[in-house]
Amino acid sequence: MSHSEAEIRKHVRVYITVFIALAVLTIATVLASYFHLPLKQAITLALFIASIKATLVAAYFMHLISENKVIHSILLLTGFFFLLLLLLPAMR
Amino acid sequence: MSDIAIKHISKPHPVTGVTNGKLGIWLFIASEIMLFGGLFSAYILLRTGSPSWPHGSSVLNVPLATLNTMLLITSSVTMVMAWASLALKNVGKFKFYLGLTILLACGFLIVKSFEYGTKFEHHHFPSTSTFYAVYFTLTGLHVLHVIGGIIVNAYYLFPGSKMWETNPEQFLCRIENAGLYWHFVDLVWIFLFPTLYLI
Which domain holds residue B93? Predict the structure, then answer.
């Protein structure tokens, strides 16, 4: 990837912002667990926060937000089979 | 030599639009997603099929795991800063951030070894219960990935960094790819932490 110097400096500011967001979300998910919500709500909330964190890491640290469509297609296909795997236990 | 050199390692391939190295690391990550996906699927099946399941925080050490989450998140940002520093041609800063990434990863392993040590002291092994089997399998596989990342990053920090003198473009691509793997290791932990410790 070839970037201009100004672009990279802008990237660095984004990385720091994402880092702060990840730290805040980690603290939020730990604090939420102390409320001992009913299991269903607790799972939904924990997975919701984890998904936001994962999206931030994938989009900005892994540069998926500006990535080539070949990579996006590979991940879309993988995502489909990944979800299928997770849904397998529910199929009887 | 130039006839047998691998092509499209520092310049995008005309068909895919990405370097072969990047395509390779993403295909590897795709296979890793399926590997961890299979284990997460097994976890869901075992948990939903079990008559009782302990709440993660009642048997595991949440403060230590929170500390580990912070260490891994920080190491992810230092990894991306290492890449950015190299892209800005600041080798000194690159080495500082990559070294910091390795140290933070080692910190993660030390905290994890304390966690495992306490479990073994209390005679909690993978064979103790289905919960511990799932816990040790998932975190153990993740630990192996952390060790793998440390080895790769240490190679690029010391002997591998010689490439910066001979082929800086390819070296920058290598660091970007090593970073992609490292962020994936962080990503797995982002899901392991709440699903094992908090619910």
Answer: 20-198
